[in-house]
Amino acid sequence: MTIRTMLDATVQKAPGAVALRFCCRGAWAARTYGEFYSRIRQAAEAAGRLGIVPGRDPVALLLENGPEWMEIYAALAGAGVTVVPIDPRLRPREIAYILGNAEAAAIFTSGRQRDCLQEILPELPCLRHLVLVDGAEAARTPCAGRSCRDYETALGEVAAAAAAPGAWFDRHRPGPETVASIIYTSGTTGKPKGAVLTHGNFGADIEGSFGIISDLRPADSFLVVLPLFHAFSFTANFLMPLCRGSSMCFVESLRTVGDDLRALRPTVLMAVPLLVEKIYDRIEGGIRASALARLLLKLGLGRVVGATVRKSLGGRLRLLLVGGAPCPVRVLQGFRRLGVNIIEGYGLTEASPVVSLSRPGDARPGTIGYKLPNIEVRLAEPDGQGVGELQVRGPIVMKGYYRDAAATAEAFDGPWLRTGDLASIDADGFITIRGRRKALIVNREGKNIYPEEVEQCIARNPAVLDVVVVGYHEGGETGEKVGAILTPNLTVIQAQHPGVAPPWAAVEALLRQAVHDQCRDLADYKHPRKIEVRRDPLERTSIQKIRRVVYQGQLDVACSPRMD
Questions:
Q1: For the chain, which end, N or C, has fewer CB atoms within 10 Å of the first or last residue's CB respectively?
Q2: Is the residue at 486 inside a domain?
C-alpha cells in the first residue's frame, strides 16, 4: 500500500463524496474527492514544470493547516517526491538547518514566510524554487535573488495539461519502499534529526491501526485541529480518513474550535491532551454550576448529562482519540462517564507514528492499549517489576535518520527501534508507560523538547557556568514544561562590572535575561518557563557530565487540592 494507492482507490470509488470542508472568506466551503484530485494533479504538474525529479529532489512544505497542505503533499508524495514537512512556527535558524540538511530543492510555503526566506536563502544553494500559497503579491518580486511563483497562478497555467492523458502525475508513481516523508524531530545533540519514512511505513501503520479501530467509515467526518506537520496528525487526520474516504474538516483557528465543533458536527476528533483537557475542564465547569447535573451524576445517570455535553460537541461525535502525550486519567474517565467514547494511543515519529491503540469498548484508562497487530514489541532489560524499555520491530519502523548514521545506530538495538520509554505489559496485552529513559521533555501539546538543544543555546553565554534543562510538572497538569537550573560564572560577571561586586539579586536577573536572550532563535515552546539560579556548582559524574537525574523533579510545583 502507498499513499498514491490510497488516494486513487478512494477517488475511483466515490469522486462525489465530500473530501474537505474549510472556511473561505468567512463562509464554509466544501470540495469533493473528485475536485480534490483535480487540484492534486495540477499541483503535481506544476511541480514537474519546476524540474523536480522524484527520488532525487526533496521538497519542503512549510504551511499552516489547510486544503493546500493536503493537496500539495498528495501531489508530491503521490508522484514519488520526498516531502519535508516543517513547523511554520520554528525560528529562521531552525528552518534553515532543516532545509539545508534535507537538501530541499523547492519549497511550498506562505507569503507570510517571505521575510524568513529572505534571511536564510543565501546559505541554501540547493533551494532553487519558491512557490507561495496566498502570496500573489509577494511572488511578484524575487526573494534573495530567486524567483517566486504564485501557487494558484501556477495551477491555472497547467490545468489543461494536468487533466490530459500522460500528465506528469500519471508518469510518476511511488512504490512501498519510496521515501514519502523526512520528518524532523529535535535532536539530542542539539540539531534536529530527519526520520526517513516510506510509503510502506505509513501504509503498514494505517493497516495496523485499522486492525484495532475497525469501524471508521466513509460517512465519518474528521475535525482537523492538530498541525499536519506533526506525525500523529498526519497519519490520524489525513491518511486514515483518506484511506476510508471520510471527510476532513479544518477548524478556522484554535480560538474557534468550540464554534467549529458545533458548525461542522464531526464524528471523529483526534487531539492532544492539552486540547482534550481544556474541553473537559469547560464541560466540568458547567456541570459544577448545575445542581441538576451534579445530582444526575451522583445517581449514575452520566449519560443523561452526556447528551447535553455531546450536543455542545456538535451532536455527532462518536470517537475521541488522544495521542502525542499522556492524557490525565481523570479526563479519560470523565468523558467515558458522560458517554463520550474516548481512547488513547501511543507512538513516535520514528514509527510512522502509531505503535499502540486502545480498542473502542475495551479501553483501560491509564494504559496505551494494545500493540498494532502487524508489529512486534518487547521490553528490553526488564526489572523485577517487569518494567523495561519498550522497543518496536516491524514494517512501521523508519529506515533511519537522514544523513546521520551515528544517530541511526543509536536509535536501534539490532533490528529493534528503541523508544526510550519504560513500560510494562500485562497478561491481557495492555501496555502501560512507566517513565522515560531518555531525557526527552514532552509538553502538553505533545511536542518533544530535547534539553541538550536548549542547554547548548544557554551555555553559549559566558556568564553561565553550568546549566541543566529539565521538564517539570505544575499543579498536577499532565505534560511537562521546560525549566532551567543554572549557576553563574562569577569571574566573568565580575569582569563585566569592574570595581563593584553585583548583589546576588542582580546576578539572578542577569542570568535570567541571558536565558531569554540565548533562546531567541528557538521555537517558543522550547523556552524555559521556570529559571532557578543557584550558588553551588551543579553535581557532576566522574567524567564531568552533569547528573541530570539529580535535578529531575526539583522544579515541580505541588498539586493543589481538587474538587471531584
A1: C
A2: yes
SS3 content of the chain, % helix, strand, coil (to 5): 40, 25, 40
Report the distance separating Cα 440 and Cα 349, nearest Å: 14
pLDDT tens-digit series, residues 471-500? 999 877 778 999 999 999 998 898 888 888
**CATH (domain of 461):** 3.30.300.30
Q: Supply the CATH number for residue 83's domain.
A: 3.40.50.980
Burial classification of residue 360, based on how many CB atoms lie within 10 Å of its CB (0-12 exposed, 13-18 middle, 19 or more buried): middle
Which of 132, 158, 174 is a domain's end point?
Answer: 174
How is residue 345 written as a grid cell?
Answer: 494511543
Q: Does 197 reside within a domain?
A: no
Contact 547, 539 (CB under 8 A): yes
Read off the pLDDT of each residue in 249-272 and give the average, rounded to a whole number. Answer: 95
**Interatomic CA distance for residues 238 and 366, integer angstroms:** 27
Give the range of the structural domain holding residue 101, as residue numbers without chain letter: 3-17+28-174
Whole-number Å distance between alpha carbons of 128 and 47: 12
pTM of the entire predicted model? 0.84
Please choose, from the candidates 505, 231, 479, the residue with its C-alpha nearest in 3D space to the C-alpha of residue 351: 231
Give per-residue pLDDT as tens, 7-50.
999 999 999 999 999 999 899 999 999 999 999 999 999 999 99
Q: What is d(CA 484, CA 296) in angstroms, rounded to the nearest whole number?
A: 46
